[in-house]
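S1.2 Input.
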Amino acid sequence: MNDSSILSAVRAAASPLLVEPGVMTGVVAQKDHDAALVSARADGLAAGKAEGESAGAIAERTRIAAIFLDSEEAKGRDKQARYFAFKTSMTPDEARAALSEAPVAEAPKAPTLLDEMKMIKQPALGADGGPNPSQMSDYEKGAAEAKRLFGIK
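S1.3 Output.
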């Protein structure tokens, strides 16, 4: 057996596409193979990136809901829950544990009748005597005039 026949036997065994030495049928050129590989990788990367972004967005929405929207611990602690959900990378369990230790915000107190009366601008009734009317608040001017009208000293 000579070197040429050994080479032919190796080629035939290695690839059924090589019918006879030096003649290739059905084989893709290396540059075409490389181009197809680059294209397939780019398509795969683009699809993988889109799939990853979608999965990441879903995971983040689920995390935010677990910390801020659906958590019992967030009630009365909205500001802190919002901070934990949007400004940190805490897990929902970590955020809920921290929220459960924080004080609950008190509801704002409704103004009393006296508070509301103080906010109403009183007309200048021209109170005589007593403190200088130009230095009195409208509330004090009204009180002084009412006392004068009712004879209260």
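S1.4 Remarks. The chain has a mean pLDDT of 78.
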